[in-house]
Amino acid sequence: MKSAKLFLGGMYLHLALSVAVPAAMILLPHWNGGQGLFFFYLVFIGVLFVLGWVAVAMAARAGSGQDVQGLWSAWRLLKLWSIPFFVLNFLYSVLAWFIIVAASRGIFFMLLPIPIAITCTLILQTGCVGCVAVKTLRARSAPETRPDRVHYLLQLLPVADVFSTLVLLRHTKETEPSSP
């Protein structure tokens, strides 16, 4: 699904911009484009959120239709290929916000919830795609091989979602015939 690819690409572009924008504003203080770049970054965050909800909607559409293979590939793409993004995002955020809060002697501590909220929204959006995949998998499985409902919750929790995805992807390979 193209929406999942766009969303994942947008996540990595967000990470690159979150490094480039502050660096450009600090290293090039006399450059007038810094404010425009910052405004572009803020608009891009909004676009990224829209892309995330479009990916969720397309996953729901694929899960209710006949494009189940598209749903599996989007789910696998968003869950497994976003791991480096979330690791790098965490490391960069901890380092950058430690420096910002320390340099401001705690004044900017009140801004700390902003990047946390952005990251939690991205986790929620990828988790919603996972919940759609779990719902589709439960509907297509025989009652004796149906995955537990706990996987809905696990898809929304960081780190646990990866383990849940790996278990469920193995389950799909065992229960789904391979398509030609």
Structure keywords:
single chain; 180 residues; mainly alpha; 7 helices; 78% helix; 0% strand; elongated
What do these coordinates show?
With 180 residues, this protein is an all-alpha fold. It contains seven helices and no strands. The protein has helices at residues 2-27, 33-64, 68-80, 83-103, 113-140, 150-154, 160-175. Helix 1 (2-27) packs antiparallel against helix 2 (33-64).
**End-to-end distance:** 18 Å
Indicate the proportion of strand residues.
under 5%
**Helicity level:** over 70%
Order of helices and strands: HHHHHHH
Reported for the largest beta sheet, the result is: none
Structure at a glance:
With 180 residues, this protein is mainly alpha-helical. It has helices spanning 2-27, 33-64, 68-80, 83-103, 113-140, 150-154, 160-175. The radius of gyration is 19 Å and the shape is elongated.
Topology:
Elements lengths: L1 H26 L5 H32 L3 H13 L2 H21 L9 H28 L9 H5 L5 H16 L5
